[in-house]
Amino acid sequence: MTATILDGKATAETIRQELAVEVARWRDAGGAIPCLAAVLVGDDPASQVYVRNKQRACERVGMVSQLHRMATDTTQQELLELIDRLNRDRDVHGILVQLPLPRSLDEQQLLDAIHPLKDVDAFHPENVGLISQGRPRYLPCTPHGVLQVLHRGGVTVAGREVVVVGRSEIVGKPLAMLLAQKNGPLGPEMANATVTICHSRTKDLAAVTRRAEVLIAAVGVPQMIQADMVAPGAAVVDVGINRTDQGLVGDVDFDAVKEVAGHITPVPGGVGPLTVTMLLHNTLTAAKRTRETAG
Ligand code: NDP
Questions:
Q1: In this structure, what are the phi and psi dihedrals at residue 168, rounded to the nearest 5 degrees?
Q2: Catalytic: 203?
């Protein structure tokens, strides 16, 4: 058996076209052009590529983007002042601080300083709290991307065994939360899963992952999910993006696992393009909220 490919790139393109229509409709109705402000500190090449991709994606759906490029030795205070300025700028609807930041900076303090209404990455404690209570203001981008690629690929999760490997604040934990809720942003069939979260202290990881009808890997270890860790017919979503001498690879051994799985996402071209797309989705939502909150 060879798995059906869940094509994240094509899914992202479809959603971007839908978003472009929505942005045009919003602007025609007199809404402000949604604007995303990106803060990039230092000269990490991967971060520069990510930010450039996000900016281009914004422009292609009719939004605008700002880039605030800061030197590696920028102080915490200077960044707090920049975030404060962006918080108060009525033309800016969404703010993102590209991670990772130089070690000398207090990342948590900076992320917490972003106004919750402009927190389009959904990292602010207020937004995380709303997600955990099942009434999200913004959906976390990568977890939302995972739900979209499954949903649009015809894979549901309600009542099924879903195993998430990885418990980071950005991917694993919020994703597990969304999957286990009674209702979700994509309806009850894309929620109500029986979710198991695995991490570096999980005993006999393979025994747990083999139980999964839907297996999601968000670990950051190249190709650690091997074919003998996957149940025949399972849907496998690979969130991992690892730079190796062989180029970009995921957390899943794609060539081996595709012979066992029912569905699988590739890397690249899987969850990555969807993460950026869901950021655009949140930026449009943020622009619409500005009008609501302005009365
Ligand atoms: P983190 O490093 O923050 O978290 C990794 C998680 O994996 C931790 O919970 C860790 O456990 C767990 N883990 C590490 N080693 C093992 C192991 N041997 N067995 C079981 N669990 C293990 O990573 P992120 O969640 O931020 O990112 C994960 C991957 O996803 C990375 O490759 C990253 O580049 C990629 N990524 C991709 C995105 C996309 O758009 N496609 C977006 C964000 C990330 P513990 O908590 O015990 O340390």
A1: -65, 160
A2: no
